[in-house]
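Repro case for the chain-ordering regression, as requested:
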Amino acid sequence: MNGSHAANDVLFSEFDLTNGLKVILSADSSIPSAAINLCYHVGSKDDDPDKRGFSHLFEHLMFEGSKNIAPGDYDRLSLMAGCENNAYTTEDKTNYYLLVPSNQIEFGLWLESDRMLEFAVTEESLELQKEVVIEEKKQVYDNKPYGSVSMELAPRLFSENGYGWDTIGNTVDIENAKLDDVRAFFGKYYVPNNAVLTIAGDIDIDKTIRLVERYFGPISKGQNGSRKEFQNSLLEKEVRAEIYDEIQLPGIFLAYKMPKEDSKEFFEFDILSDVLSMGDSSRLYKELVYDKHLVSDVGAWVEGKEFAGLINIYAILMPGVKIETVQNEIDRIISEVKDGKVTAAELEKVINRIETRHAYRMQTNLSKADMLSHYAAFYNDPGLINTNIERYHMVTLEGIRESAAKYLDPANRVVLNYLPKK
Amino acid sequence: MTNILLAQEELLDRSKPPVPGPPKDVQFPDYFDTTLPGGINVLVIENNKIPAVSVRLVFKNAGSYYDNGKYGLASLTAELLTKGTKNRSATQIAEEIDFIGGNLNSGSDWDGSYVSLSLLKKHLNIGIDVLADVVLNPVFSEDEISRVKEQRLSSILQGKDDAGNLTDKMFNKVLFGNHPYAFPAEGTEESINSMTRGDYEDFYKSHYLPQSLILAFVGNITKEEAIMIVNDRFSNWSGTPQENSDVKVYLIDDRKPNSVDIVNKPGAVQSNLRVGHIGISRNNPDFIAVTVMNTILGGYFGSRINYNLREKHGYTYGARSGFNTKIYPGDFSVDADVRNEVTDTSVSLIIEELNRIIKEEVTDEEFQTVKNYLTGVFPLQLETANAVASRVINLKLYNLPRDYYNSYISSINGLTKQDILNAAKKYIHPDKLFIVISGDAKAIEEKMKKFGPVKVYDPDGKEIGGN
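-- result from build under test --
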């Protein structure tokens, strides 16, 4: 149990099994339910360059049966036990969760441990899930206005590493996936020493420790050190591209490279992105939407990844507005930020907003479990769930100005202009 | 350690699921409910898990149903509330709320209009000042009206790129005929351009009334604090209820089922489809039986339709069916995005499933799974104060009994397979389906003719072909 804590801090216990599985338990009996969250430290940046989309395809396959669970039974049994389940894949992790009624915790551990225990995916399941993933790509990316932005940005931002493709990957690579590759992927990454198990909710800590040991303890440890690591580098020359899409209104999408998720700059730019676009009083909204009627929609946000980070800005134009006009306005607003025009009142406003966001994130077992797993997997410090907020309080106007001047440089960005197909 | 674990592994039988202990009782949280002399219905759903409060206002009889030909009126009126008052400009409202890290939103749906504020408890007083001001003193200035209109027109234009949005609009149009639900709640280019300041002022005066207001306080707040706020801020508010004599319950009389309507998106790589007909209202006494029946049919991941289209055939990323319940009967429909080549096959599979659910009893396993699932996930629907508040507000909005959620689980468990079959027979009509698709007409039109006469439209809804 961690030591001193503030009134609303999340309390938790953590321990490691001898096979290397990190375990975090956090009790909260406000509803008779618990979140069982398994975070594997593998994501699309770990895909081989000729197997793009593999880690995400693999996420689908994890629902296709394991040693003692027949194909289709993961879902069938979990629904029968009154559970909700799902998973998601990012560049850096693959995260699975099961929300169980509190009398079904042992069931949940049985179900989850079996798919870490032994690989049993069939050729048939693989072929079917390839089709499902290809339809997912069409629905979420290809057949959606501006849906291809992340796929177009990634290779232009990261030509030299695994961030150079979107998590969804490439249709041909997905079609070419072989069962042997999939099995090897499992052996390399789906091992207890590459995972964090968090259980948050209506649990008895001692009893849950024994259950975790019983179901996960016997699983063999895998090899260490299979991870690719790399340095983040900035761009040296602005990259611009025009993309023709099935859209009515042109859009501008900018991304600047910046340091990774736990860097000082991440917190500065998280605040700055809110100064730019959070709420109707934010700089981009107030000037471009409200005062000048140039754009219908505008936004800025940061992405903190394990080895890199991005500041994203986008705007969808009002009918008849020139794309150069909006680009110039965005550049002017950014240069004001670089000149130190952000005020103390803006900083205080955004800190207030972040405090509200922090409080609301503590509402659900799933949200708490997801954060505890994340901070344990990447920083070996689940306590960041409570203490990360302090990093925001440490941000200064001077720090924002310096980082903006360094990273919000046109030479360090990719600019995509989305234009209507003729 | 290793030896102990090995010993455990010998005893551990992983071949079948462990037997669960008895389920814990789930209690729907208690809440405070009173109607004040001025007519305001105050609800307090106290929950002290996080130091935050939400204040949610729901105006009954103030939704798009009452647009009365001026499509988009309810929606724009709600949006304009936060865009200037007698005391504050739009910019001042935004600055005050943003500064305290709060969220202030207003909007509408078919059944009502909404204003909501969420923030940390420590900023409540400032937030309430602004909230009361936007609800009681909106000014609907010409400048803000033109800004909001311009934004809305751009959003309508953008909607023409979105396959799901095109399908929804066409589906409502063919399904609801001349009923208000047939028309887009966001408005049309024509209706938005034709509205004037007087329209918003009139709508506000006749629909934003204390007598129509459900005012819910949610989270880290006691009923004493809540009542004090209401007495302080809203007690002098009086509105004259006007008879909504210009609004009728329209008859739905020009529906032509067994037809196919395609909104053409040349080059689309998937067909976005909706297949269905008129459904039920929220206060239908069979609501829970219909929910269980629909869950088996297409209401969750393990449903027949999702299993068939996704897990068995790989035609789609996901397929769902649902009853869209409102004050008046909404739609029942099956939705999916499927690849072009299997558009007609997917519709055939969906129709097969609709026929099966009305002809045969569901299996014991399907029935028990859905009962367990709905019971098991029920606590998750009570996990946040706002989720509980949404349910309490619905009880009031749809005139459901106070103990509705206390008996929810026993109502589910009391159902029989015959009840499910009866609900299917009564509310699913595979012989009277409307089939609407947005997709590449060239690739799919010919094969869709087997389902009925096909019409093809452009994204503006103009008929451009068919037979």
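Ordering looks correct now. Chain A touches chain B through 85 residues (CB under 8 Å).
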